[in-house]
Amino acid sequence: MLRRARKTPDWRQTQGLNLATDTASLVLGIETTCDETAAAVVERRSDGSGRILSNIVHSQIEDHAPFGGVVPEIAARAHVDLLDGIVARAMQQAAVNFKNLSGVAAAAGPGLIGGVIVGLTTAKAIALVHNTPLIAVNHLEAHALTPRLTDALAFPYCLFLASGGHTQIVAVLGVGNYVRLGTTVDDAMGEAFDKVAKMLGLPYPGGPQVERAAASGDAERFAFPRPMLGRPDANFSLSGLKTAVRNEASRLSPLEPQDINDLCAGFQAAALESTADRLHVGLRIFRERFGAPHALVAAGGVAANQAIRGALQQVATAAGTQFMIPPPALCTDNGAMIAWAGAERLALGLVDSLEFAPRARWLLDANVTTPAKFANTRAGF
Amino acid sequence: MLILAIDTALDACAAGVLNTDSATMIGQQSLPMQRGHAEALVPLIARVIAEADISFEAIDRIAVTTGPGSFTGLRVGLSAARGLALAADRPVVGLTTLAAFAAPLVGETAADPILSAIDARHDQVYFQVSGGDGTTLLRPRVAPIDEAIAAALRFGAPRLVGNAAQILAARWPSDAAPPVSVDAKPAPDIAWVAWLGAAVTPENSPARPYYLRPPDAKPQIPVVQFAASPSA
């Protein structure tokens, strides 16, 4: 199974430098930034292609469902209970020994800090035992690099990441070279879907429930706002739309099932129109600054929404680029994407010290300065 | 037997290696620390292993404090201990911070009970009461300070130990027999964590968090009224 373990004991010394001529590697990846406890082993061949040897994901959805959202302390408790068992399964399924790993990667942020601490500390401990390089991966970077694992996509390309924690348009120019073109100034898109579901009494996680209800609803019944429409920047805003839904729901209360369907349909249509417009602008900015992207790539749980997916496809076509979406299991949080991002960084000699601090917030684009008026908002992500 | 002990549950970041055959700590470090355990711990373990001049293969067992203490702190120690155990293929055991605080006071001839207490904030303490010989008199629990004192006094004037020892002493009722001794330390002695780790088994002392408090979360309450229960 395992072809190579050609690392020298002093590999750790090669920080910032790539002394290896053959950069093939075998990397363990750990993901614990939200409510998935996940580990995977990925092989990166010297030609730059990748192969997933194992990918174990434990979703904590059931633990959080009674609360209508992810409770950070419950998530952190579940991660520490489960993670070593999940890592053991990933290693077993990949038939890889810890000694033969070229690197140990963990999502070191951004995310819920309690979980990040568990994942990163576990990774550091594993790295220490066999003196294996540690790679502290930015969770967003892992989403950004996934299409290179699944489709060997060449740089540059445009990423639309929309999940419960993030809503961003990112120009992916190279490993470690990202420019954030747009982000949400308040709620993340998945968060807005979940909150709308919660206020309408739909079970958690609410995104798919909203989509289902919307399918039998009348999107025209309510005139919900289309946030940010027509603005020259590529940012998102969802909290005003969410509030509009809440106000309408309170006004109608008590709600009939058809009211709920119509509210969901109206909300989804508004979110969709706003998203399409924001991406249209984002792709235009991309082209102006970096030339034509090789693809528009979607990632994150929101990309599972068929209506949004359809809108993204149209936006990509209109912009003359292809639309790509990794398989669902690699779109939502998983360990394989962390392992892959770790392998890509390792191939460039980008490894981290065992003192690396877990980060609740971690901008993908280190050069981005958050506009002052958004300083205390989610734009800081 | 070589035991690697780890404690980050309270206001220290500590690790040490105990050689039970020679009854010596062949490497140890303890840094006073209120936050930053996640950055400090693994490099600190690396230094302790280097000081002990051993490899991970030589270690027979890993021991870690499981709490009660800082939720985040104890998870740092447990994550490191369980990660090391997995990668090195060694057993890992868990000890409570309350037991680690009490351990130095336990003796065959010591008669006075031991009240081991940790500050749980909000005017509460995590505590346990044990006999001078180490037998359990009151299992670990969390309670208001005055209740903890009253519960302990049923067994006679105790020796106070733990990071809340001074807090308890200050609140001791004037009409009760005063504490026999007050031994306030910010964190357990890492050597005692190691010794306790040598005495237990992974089966009866698993390396699992010992929070003593549920997560602070309440189930959701709908904000709008529904005419009929919505379809799921």
TrEMBL record, chain B:
<dbReference type="GO" id="GO:0002949">
    <property type="term" value="P:tRNA threonylcarbamoyladenosine modification"/>
</dbReference>
<dbReference type="Pfam" id="PF00814">
    <property type="entry name" value="TsaD"/>
</dbReference>
<protein>
    <submittedName>
        <fullName>tRNA threonylcarbamoyl adenosine modification protein YeaZ</fullName>
    </submittedName>
</protein>
<dbReference type="GO" id="GO:0005829">
    <property type="term" value="C:cytosol"/>
</dbReference>
<dbReference type="InterPro" id="IPR043129">
    <property type="entry name" value="ATPase_NBD"/>
</dbReference>
<dbReference type="InterPro" id="IPR000905">
    <property type="entry name" value="Gcp-like_dom"/>
</dbReference>
<dbReference type="InterPro" id="IPR022496">
    <property type="entry name" value="T6A_TsaB"/>
</dbReference>
<feature type="domain" description="Gcp-like">
    <location>
        <begin position="34"/>
        <end position="130"/>
    </location>
</feature>
